[in-house]
Amino acid sequence: MSVDEGHRSCRAPVGQVHWRVRGAKAQGDSHRRLGMPCQDAFHFAEVSATEGSAPTYVLAVADGAGSRRRSGEGADHAVRVGTQAVERLLAAGPCPAGAADWGYLAGEAFRDAHRTLLGLFRAYGDPADFATTLTLAILHRHYVAWAAVGDCFLVVRAKRGLDASFALVDLEPKSRYGAAADETAFVTSDRCLETLRNYAMDDPRVTGVLLSTDGLESPFVRNSGRDPQVTESIVRSVMEYFDEQPQQPDAALGDFLYSPQFRQYTQDDKTIVVAVSDDDR
Predict the structure, then answer these.
(1) Are 154 and 169 in contact (CB under 8 A)?
(2) Which of 164, 152, 147 is nearest to 207 (CA)?
(3) Residue 17 above 90 pLDDT?
(4) Does the pLDDT value for residue 180 go beyond 50?
């Protein structure tokens, strides 16, 4: 069994949103039998847009192409380079003023990361050997912005009082390529930026974000081919677990990934990053 976890719980100043972020990845059963490592990656960080501003959280997941010999390395580089690109743009200022500005920043960060990654991979050989997807998500107060290429997906929770709703806000369209509907775009592909999905939302009710690679699409998403919907019971259970157990050890999320509940759906690698907020908006 191979599980990697990460955890960060940063106390924001009074009046600002406090997010607890956890991430984990688990080697798929098929990779374990073949002696292949997990080819997914994740990374997250807290950064400051400008001095004295509310903290900004950057989440990243990537899924290396199983058929490419260095795709695991590609995924590892992608999540870190993507996070660093967001941090550089925020440091250059000014702090984005609204949802459109945050969406623009997410897209520019992705383009910056794409250029950097191509240069890096070319220095080591054929970029195609490092083929990987990449999704970046940015959380700042009540804004959520993201930029994505490939088949990772993003779910948000909107909550007011005891009522909560869940929405699948990003998933690669299965019909994008017609006959080649199962073909996934990668950061290293020629059409990468043509397939870039780049959006932002402004919702003060958002208190949860879940970002995942496609290894968890089957349990988390219903009818992914035509009318995709969140499998609310499963997403709710994951988010509420960390709502109610804020001091759980980092391995808890990894335990979720290796539970029979998830392993029954897929033999693929599985990666997830979950952010939940203490704010009761």
Answers:
(1) yes
(2) 164
(3) no
(4) no
Domains and CATH numbers, the chain: 3-10+19-277 (3.60.40.10)
Tell me the pLDDT band of 270, cut-offs 50, 70 and 90.
Answer: confident
Tell me the pTM.
0.88
59 CB burial (10 A radius; 0-12, 13-18, 19+): buried
Both tokens assigned to 254: 């990894």
Q: CA dist 185 to 54, 71, 100, Å?
A: 34, 13, 25
Mean pLDDT computed over 19-39? 77
Which residues make Cβ contacts (< 8 Å) with residue 86, sequence separation at least 6?
47, 56, 58, 105, 106, 109, 136, 138
Burial class (CB in 10 A: 0-12, 13-18, 19+), 200: buried
Q: Rounded to an integer, what distance in angstroms lies between the CA atom of residue 28 and that of residue 257?
A: 10
Dist. CA 119–CA 19, nearest whole Å: 34
Query: Among all chains, which residue has been given the structure tokens 């702090």?
Result: 95
Query: Could you tell me if 26 and 269 are in contact, meaning their C-beta atoms sit under 8 angstroms apart?
Result: yes
Residue 125 structure tokens: 């050989």
